[in-house]
Amino acid sequence: MSKPYDYLIVGSGLFGAVFAHEAKKKGKRCLIIDKRNHSGGNIYCENVEGINVHKYGAHIFHTNDKTIWDYVNSFVEFNRYTNSPLAIFENEMYNLPFNMNTFYQLWKVKTPDEVKAVIQAQIAESGITNPQNLEEQAISLVGTDIYYKLIKGYTEKQWGRDAKDLPAFIIKRLPVRFTYDNNYFNDKYQGIPIGGYNKLTEGLLEGIDIKLNVDYFANRAEWDAQADKIVFTGKIDEFYDYRFGQLQYRSLKFEHQTKDTDNYQGNAVVNYTERHIPYTRIIEHKHFEFGTQSKTVITKEYPEEWNTEKEPYYPINDAHNTEIYKKYEALAKADSHIVFGGRLAEYKYYDMHQVIGSALKKSQSI
Ligand code: FAD
Ligand code: UDP
To answer: Whole-angstrom Cα distance, residue 150 to residue 281?
Structure first.
């Protein structure tokens, strides 16, 4: 007997939503289930005081790929927001990413040649020639002053690990620039959906059956019986009953507060880079959409170690976890009726545009 759906999609985050949209376009019947009480996964926004609050942390869309930019803009128009976070260390403010403004604030040097000389002297003194971990990579990019003031404390609280035990690629996400340019991203396209990310999710999921508050693992056999194929965007280790051991994740606690002021910190993102301050950043959401509301909503982001009671926000792509993941990946490759996609199922530190790229690619096989 034929099953009611062609695809059961576990997870209504960006991967699940893009895949479902593409499958529907090709005439496939899709059912999405999600264990949360809303769709959209981590891009979900909640409206508070007329402000779109990024419930699971600040999300700024950026990509170099015009196809992906046009794709998201076909569901909702994006504004021209440019992310320019600030960092506070010992009561001093610095511009991010590391650029001529930051270097001037640190050393009062004004030209790229002077800056490069300062950084080169610090790198030479450190003796690092072949960086093997995040600490060595950071020092060999920006020298020791920036490492100790703006990177080490933030990184170690964010990841709960010594910077020497973390992979170098994490710090390469941040541009280092010898121009006076505070744009956090190098990508050509950047912005926030006008009216919030839920508009993107709603556009993608239009006409698709969805059931919320449903955990796939609570009734696996019943859900499997619903469709010929499965798209899985949850934790890949859980999918395979942890048979090769648990993968590690980093979790977060978000503390949202409404403040009776129209402007709390003057910028959407302010990072706190000292180790002893328990949160990594404060987000003031209204600035993402240039809001003029009389109140404001801020969110403090506290990193936490993950356990099964918490949300797995970040994969920890160190050597230990990569070795475990590779075993799960081999099983996944052999399971041809299941598509594994997204941050948790591919165990990758993906940004939104990369998740969309992956979903579009994997949906080509439909
Ligand atoms: P998710 O959004 O996690 O969706 C997975 C969904 O699956 C969830 O809704 C979950 O409830 C559901 N699910 C999982 N297991 C089950 C189950 N067993 N049964 C039913 N449902 C299940 N990217 C950017 O490009 N720019 C940014 O500025 C940015 N900022 C970020 C800030 C933070 C704090 C975080 C955590 C991420 C950020 N990202 C950012 C990354 C972005 O959130 C992800 O790339 C993207 O949202 C991941 O989509 P996804 O579909 O893979 O996963
Ligand atoms: N980072 C840092 N200081 C900062 C901001 C970032 O050391 O003020 C490092 C930190 O290791 C972090 C990484 O750069 O995990 C990537 O930062 P990004 O802003 O991309 O992190 P995300 O928004 O994904 O949490």
So the answer is: 12
Does pLDDT of 22 surpass 90? yes
3-state DSSP assignment of residue 324: helix
Ligand 1 centroid from CA 137, angstroms: 27
Residue 226's pLDDT band, with cuts at 50, 70 and 90, is very high
The residues, any chain, with a CB within 8 Å of residue 243's CB and separated by 6 or more, are none
Catalytic residue among 5, 177, 237, 346: 177
Any alpha helices (H) in the chain, and if so which ranges? 14-25, 66-73, 100-107, 112-126, 134-146, 152-159, 198-205, 220-224, 236-239, 319-334, 352-363
Residues 243 and 334 in one domain: yes
- Which of the following is catalytic: 237, 301, 346, 347? 301
Judgement on whether residues 21 and 133 belong to the same structural domain of the protein: no
275 counts as catalytic: no
Residues 263-300 pLDDT 10s: 999 999 999 999 999 999 999 999 999 999 999 999 99
In a domain, 288, yes or no: no
Residue 294 half-sphere exposure toward CB, CA atoms < 13 A: 1
- Domain co-membership, 76 together with 131: no
Active site annotation includes 29 = no
* Structural domain containing residue 43: 5-82+188-248+317-365
Instruction: Answer yes or no: do 232 and 338 share one domain.
Output: yes
Domain count, the chain: 2
The protein residue whose alpha carbon is closest to atom 20 in ligand 2 is 173
Choice among 216, 281, 284, 346 that is catalytic? 281
Q: What is the pLDDT of residue 2?
A: 87
Cβ of 14 closer than 6 Å to ligand 1, yes or no, is: yes
Tell me the per-residue pLDDT of 63-107, one tens digit each, with 9 for 90 and over. Answer: 999 999 999 999 999 999 999 999 999 999 999 999 999 999 999
